[in-house]
Design brief:
2 copies of one chain form a homodimer. Chain A has about 80 residues and is mainly alpha-helical. Chain A has a single domain (about 1-84), classed as Up-down Bundle (Monooxygenase). In chain A, about 85% of the residues lie in helices and about 0% in strands. Chain A contains 4 helices and no strands. In chain A, α2 (about 20-30) runs parallel beside α4 (about 60-80). The first copy, chain A, starts with a helix and ends with a helix. Chains A, B: It is a multi-pass membrane protein. Chains A, B: Keywords: Membrane, Transmembrane, Transmembrane helix.
């Protein structure tokens, strides 16, 4: 694999998996103070559209990466929505 | 413009601009409680690699979208790093 592709895969891995520590933190502490609810409403909607886009153009990398990020970002959104 | 492309642009706009309300919230309240520092370390590193990747393959949409997200996510990272 050429190194340009490695940079791409590394970038995709980092931006996708970055939501894992946030999801773990929010689920374990139940503390969403400081987290913008509007950010996660926009972000999760955007991820769902990326997923649809990836399926429509038949690009598995786009659909799979965004499905995984969606799975990680969704519990964060749900926790911020439960906040008063 | 075909509607599949519109979905792609809308998705890109939402996932990119979603970091704007979080950046505004963090800068105005100085409250980063609940926000995962590790998430933003990984996310900003990933965005920088996406930017490099976009420049290397000569894809302006990839480099510009990730540069914009980087500009929005960087102050969030800096604020979480300042937290004790």
């Amino acid at each position: 694999m050429e190194w340009v592709k490695i940079i791409g895969y590394l970038a995709a891995m980092l931006t996708t998996l970055s939501f894992l520590p946030q999801a773990i933190k929010v689920i374990s502490t139940r503390n969403t103070q400081g987290i913008s609810r509007l950010m996660y409403i926009m972000f999760v909607t955007g991820l769902a559209l990326w997923l649809v886009y990836g399926l429509l153009i038949g690009d598995r990398a786009v659909s799979m990466a965004n499905l995984l990020t969606l799975i990680l970002a969704l519990p964060i959104l749900l926790m911020t929505l439960r906040r008063q």
